[in-house]
Amino acid sequence: VGGAWFAGDCAALSECYSAGSQYSAAPILPDPLVLPTVQHLRESWDDYQDAVEDDPEVGEDGFIFDFAPDELHKANISGATHEIEMVQYVADPVIHGVTGRSGITLVEYLRVSISWGGMPGWSFKPDQAPAALAALRVRPDF
Predict the structure, then answer these.
(1) Which domain does 25 fall in, by range?
(2) Residue 28 pLDDT exceeds 90
(3) Is the pTM higher than 0.70?
(4) Phi/psi of residue 46, each to 5°?
(5) CB 30 within 8 A of CB 7
């Protein structure tokens, strides 16, 4: 499975990453869907293994995968990441760091993302969502 990167410039959706922090006065951050590749996960795991080999204390908290940039980074504002703790073998892990969605799992995050045309942040202010987003919205069947 490849990755997905919906962050960036899209005038029809009022997305303009290259303009800088244009969302600082906006009522909502759209949080465009970003999914990492399996290769990114593999490289992160290899880096973690190397770090643990050099310093065993690094491994005390387990492997934390930087899953995607957070909604601030996606809006070209300094932020953090959405993270998944890879300490348990679960099919639907919790994604940490998603503003307004404490405890959301990967599958639920994908559902809300797809149902909002890849821009789940607009679910917090649906009446302010760009009109062009309506054509992209779909109710997922998973």
Answers:
(1) 4-136
(2) no
(3) yes
(4) -60, -40
(5) no
